[in-house]
């Protein structure tokens, strides 16, 4: 025991010993003794606690795998719901989108388009399909316009799970400009000038180019939906059709989602035409898939379309003639005039009742009928590669022969029998192609809810994820010019 005095004991003077009782002898040492004892006791308790905690941690880890906890005891989600990145949606002035819809009576010189773009771009409910489709799915069908994609994408983007409100954290930037609606009203008469057709696009680019995130990337991480075919935005001279929006210098690096792309332009991406089927849940999709899978098909092939009387050697007219001369093997829906534009069930019924559907080019290389046909579980027959194969790579199977038939248009012009070609496929081959078509239905439809389909990707999801992935690809050294 250390002495209680700071003065050293004299080595020359021995200590004088006195007898004291035990309590009296310990009393001067009690404060320090209790302190040492208390510290020693705490050490023992701490050792026991640590050993027990380690044992408990090992057992828990083996059997329960608890979530990772951060320093502030908040659970951390270890699953990344947005592995491809996030999208920032520009808050464009309403002049470029919603005001166009508010003035829907002016969008077309031939009549109001207000009913066409109701229900957030889906259009009117398809009430005339009652009895043709399963009763449980009557609320999933609409008379959707083929040029409504920019409205549909905008509404979906605002509720997209990978949307961010912090621009600096975004991988890509979405420009919600309704380019198709903006130019549509100026296409059909000579009352407007080339400047009228270009005005909205030029003003949009001026606005976007002033944004700091455009200046940072020169537009490589920006994208837009343009609801018409690419050729409506590629006017070469003042007298030609359409606007020159895509040819404007500021559009060069912007990725463009179009229902028909220019196959030689990297920044054009072909996305599915909007169809009438807009499921609300994965169960809606499954119900429809089973319906078309088990459908009794009484006709070998069908064709829905109209002739182009002013075109010499009109290919559509040739197809119609082959159908009419096929002794009941082909079903025809002649869409001459406006027979197919006012909400008829004839086209869908034709596709549902046929193994194959003929898909020539439309006014351009593609047509919405491709997707109407496939949603009905009918196998498409193509005559031009650019009708589908070089258009929709993100959405259709990589092996064209797995889901479609190709007959070169030149062979048909030289007299080849379409019926003869299609009759050569066995029932098992047709069944396999149909099954591949049915498998891809979720990838070519646009869901009804703004949040999309819980647990299932639709065409919108594949399109936006495709854009995000290509933005990352563009960041590689030597990619950009």
TrEMBL record:
Domain of life: Eukaryota
Membrane topology, as annotated: Single-pass type II membrane protein
UniProt keyword annotation of Cell inner membrane present: no
Exostosin GT47 domain span: 82-419
Annotated GO MF terms: galactosyltransferase activity
Keyword field: Glycosyltransferase, Golgi apparatus, Membrane, Signal-anchor, Transferase, Transmembrane, Transmembrane helix
Bilayer-crossing regions: 34-53
InterPro entries assigned: Exostosin, Exostosin_GT47
Statement: the UniProt record of this protein carries the keyword Isomerase: no
Cellular component terms per the entry's GO annotation: Golgi membrane
Pfam families on file: Exostosin_GT47
BP term (GO), one: xyloglucan biosynthetic process
Record family assignment: Belongs to the glycosyltransferase 47 family.
UniProt protein name: Exostosin-like protein
